[in-house]
């Protein structure tokens, strides 16, 4: 049913049809389902002071209120419902009939009720059904097709024009869960959903970002919920942590990632233990995003906690311990504690080479991070050597368009700029920027860092107009993405002010310098 048909039905059923725009909002809330629209109109008509907006307010208040409204005029829907016209009861009759005729179809419906209504991957449902059916693949696929068709016949789900995708109206999902709760089965299916998402949500890597993005809407329901039982606590924590890492690394949404890490840590400490490896991982990931957000002191404290825990629980040579060493060193570098950072980076590199080999991506990450802290101390020749080693390894192991490779390109370009090799540096910065824009998008923090680095090397060559343009782009992006007080934003303010001075625009440059100074004083 489309909007115009829904409005016509609603106005035909209402005694007072003067309700304006709120009528459209009601139709959307009810998924344009005729039965739900008819019942809502009857409810409004029966209450003298009830309006569409009032009904919507009640409908959106909480799930219990929504259930009461949809179950209105039904009595106890587990008893004789033959005369009822409530939404819940009407669908419950269908659900029960499906469960009697084809239990596996009812199971599929139950699982689907926990997905986002739109874009449900059919391949994931099919894979789940294969495992649950305990049949050979051909027989399991045939059974799934029949289950799927059964639910379509009852108009409970629909295939979409997009390959491998199906959908289910949100109201049908809600009523399915109400039905499941009537025989205390909601948590069982919520557990199955969490387990399935933990199985399907991939380890976050550039090559898996497309699948991460596909599953992102389906795991959003887990963010504010509690784990549905001790059996799936670790799976629940894994999903939140990986989603957080995807938001942090792929989307540059640091604030959202931080929120997820805090939530995962809270549950992990409470239901596992403060020293459990999953808890330590949550501590480390939280520290990482705090460093990205410029909260370096808090990040350092958490990194030290994670490292101490890893050393005690897993040993000093375990890869997770070495990653923690590396992460602590990075945040020390952010704070200018270069000697301690270098010492830790060398420890991490030696450990990674021994545990994983010289060409493993984690080893190459350690090589690159050591190079950066060497450059911070003016040890440009040694930094150049390590950056070239890292870049060569990344290109071979991950490919030239992988974000880790592009970061390595950018880091080498920075050192070349320090060495006065501006033409080669500019060429590499342009390569990095083009790659970041393609892989991450124009507003990702790593892209904005690349923009800033290119602007700086342009200024070093006296190309002030172009440098000005890129510094303004970096500043505008960082203000929007990171906030006006983030250290990277203030760096952009200072960099732009410097170029403006070179251009003789002293008034604007002075204004920016004062802004940078005031923001830094606030931080102190």
TrEMBL record:
Pfam family of the protein (one): TPR_12
Record SMART domains: TPR
Domain DUF7779, residue spans: 100-177
Name assigned to this protein: TPR-like protein
